[in-house]
Write a structure and sequence with these properties.
Blueprint lengths: L22 H24 L8 H48 L10 E4 L2 E3 L2 E3 L1 E5 L5 E3 L4 E8 L5 E6 L4 E11 L6 E2 L4 E5 L9 E8 L2 E3 L1 H7 L13 H6 L1
Antiparallel strand pairs: 1-4, 2-3, 4-11, 5-10, 6-7, 6-9, 7-8, 8-10, 8-11, 11-12
């Protein structure tokens, strides 16, 4: 039978004692803990904050940000300006086309015979020119404007007067039938009536007069100055534009 040691208390009988770790392990653990804390402290000390950052560096960063924002705004403004320029260009083109259409002068008929010019005839001023054509043949406005008169006017028979905003008036007389009325806005090349023989007329024809600021003028040189030659039957180079508008 095993003899019990006198120094072993009864309360430890049957139990295993946990061995005590050597002092070197505690030393290593404590040393590592302090070393870790030191590294953290050093790292924290080296982290910059607003108070320790170089003011010149902050200034540089600010300039970079301002420059970046300026570039962004300029780019956006450039795009907007580009779009604005495109719209302005389109509007200018449209206005130019409308202005060109308003300045076009054309022949009233495609087929006709020039029979009488401007000047004194039988002691009276024949204030226009006569263009013979078949009765009922549609004729067109030689210039854009607004109809100021349309109806039957004595020796003119069925006639139309169209005035523009520059003081020019064109009178179309001896018509068989009118296709427009007073107040209508007319484009160059628009069909406005039919050739006839009404009023003081001696044959089916279109009588054409042009008045400048209230005074009659010879249509031949006037129209020639505007790109139209009545005798040669040559229209303005912009005739196609008038037809398309």
């Amino acid at each position: 039978m095993r003899q019990r040691l006198s120094s072993e208390p009864d309360r430890y009988r049957g139990r295993r004692r946990v061995p005590t770790p050597p002092r070197s392990r505690y030393a290593i653990a404590v040393t590592a803990a302090f070393a870790g804390a030191g590294v953290v402290a050093l790292g924290a000390a080296n982290m910059p904050d607003a108070k320790t950052v170089d003011p010149q560096a902050l200034k540089g960063l600010g300039h970079n940000q301002v420059a970046s924002e300026a570039l962004t705004e300029r780019s956006a403004g450039g795009d907007a300006a580009s779009r604005g320029d495109s719209r302005d260009a389109a509007a200018t083109t449209k206005l130019s086309a409308e202005q060109t259409a308003a300045d076009i002068w054309l022949l009233p008929l495609e087929e006709y015979q020039f029979t009488s010019g401007y000047g004194v005839r039988w002691g009276k001023l024949h204030a226009g020119i006569d263009l013979a054509a078949p009765e009922g043949l549609p004729y067109k406005a030689i210039h854009a404007g607004k109809v100021t008169q349309a109806g039957y006017f004595g020796g003119y028979g069925y006639a139309i007067t169209i005035a523009d905003d520059k003081g020019n008036e064109v009178i179309y007389a001896h018509s068989r039938r009118l296709l427009v009325k007073k107040g209508d806005v007319i484009k160059a090349g628009q069909v406005i009536a039919e050739v006839g023989n009404t009023g003081a007329s001696y044959g089916t024809h279109l009588h054409l007069e042009i008045h400048v600021k209230g005074s009659p003028t010879d249509p031949i040189p006037f129209l020639r100055d505007h790109g139209v030659d009545i005798k040669l039957k040559v229209e303005s180079v912009y005739a196609g534009m008038a037809a398309a508008s």
